[in-house]
Amino acid sequence: MRGRPSVLFVHYTFPGVVGGVETVVAHHAAGLRDQANVRLLAGRGRTGVTGVERIRIPLVDSLHPAVVRVSRELARGRVTPAFAELREDLAAALLPHLRGADRVVLHNVATMGLNLPLVAALHEVAPGLPPGRLIVWIHDLAAADARHAALLHPGEPWALLSRPLPGARYVAVSVDRQEQAARLLGIAPDSIRVVPNGVDLGGMLRLSRRGRALVERLGLAAADPLLLLPARLVRRKRIELAIVAAGSLRRRGRRARLIVTGGPDPHDPDASLYLAELRALVAEAGDHDVLLFDVIGRSADDSFVADLYALSDALVFPSATEGFGLPVIEAAVNRLPMVCTDLAVFRSLAGPAATYVPVGADGEAYADAIERALATSLAAGLAGRVRRELDWRRVVTEQVVPAILG
Asked: Per the domain annotation, does 1 fall within a domain?
C-alpha cells in the first residue's frame, strides 16, 4: 500500500443500529480513522462514527424484504431464481467498492447465514481480488450456533459457509472461535489470527473527563496493581508504608502504581518536613510508581476520587489510628479489595472482608498483604487484567491495526 491506505468495513447494518458487532465495527473504524481512509458499507442505519464515509447498499441488510423472502425459502431447503438474482445484484453493487479498497474487513457477513445471497456474492467476486485484501472477521459461525445450524441444508449455497473465501485472511475474536472456524473451514488454526474485542474503559466505569485524561496522561491502565490511598499527608496515616510496599511489589516484578490523593495538612507545622520525607521515599521507590497529590492534580473532588476508586485494584490504608475510616466503606461500595491496619475501627466496618496487617508491621508486610488480597479476589484480578489488556484503545492500537494494515 502506498500513501494513506483505504479500509472498508462491511456488516449488515451500520453502527447506528444497536448491536454487539456494530459496536465492535464502530471501535475499529474510529481507531483506524487517523491512519487510513475508512469507509463503512452496510444496508441499514446511521453511520454512528464521526468522520467516516457511509456506503449504503440496501440488499446487504439481512432484513431487506427481498432478502427475507429468499431466506424463508432457503430455510425450507429451496433455492429459487430469486436467490440467483440477489446474488448477482449484490456482486455487481459490491465489486466497485471492494476493488477500490486496500483492505476489506467482513464482519460476520461471510460466516453467518443471515444473508446467504451476500455470502454467495462474496464467493463470486473474491477470486478476482488481490490475495489478502479480504479479511473475514469471525464473531459468530452459523454452523456453531444450534439455532442457525437448524436452518442449513446440504449443498449450495449453505456449503459456502464451510468453505474458505478465496484469497481471504481470517481473524477470530477468541481462541474458541479460532478452533471452531479451523475445523469448519478445514484450515490450520494458526492461519486464523485471534484479536479479542475490548471494553470502553472510561464509558464502562463512567469516568469523568478529568479521570479519562489522567488515565491517558499517566498510563494508569497498565498498572499491575493500581493501588489507592485516599488520605491527607499526615504522619498518623503512615503513607510511607504504602510507598515502601509499592516499591517492594515493583522489585517482585509487578508493575505496581500507588496513588495518594491528599495534600499536606494545612494545620500541621510538620507538614513540609513530612512531605519532604515522602518525596525522598518516592524517589527511592521509583518516581513514576508513586503518584502524590501534585502529580494527579491538586484538588481531588468527590467525582475525581470516585474515578480513582473505579480504576484501582485495591485500597491500601496503613493508618496508625482512625476515628472512623471512611475509605474502607468507600472501597466496599466499589467492591475493592482492602488492605488496612488491624485496628478495631476497621474490623467493625469491614469484618472479614478486609486483609489486615499488624500495627507494627513494615512496608514489606503490606506488600505481602496486597498480594494475598489480590490473589483471593478473583473478580478484582479479572477486572485488573481487563483494564490492562482489553481497553479498546490498547486492543485497537496493538492488535486491530496490525491485523488489518499489516
From this structure: no
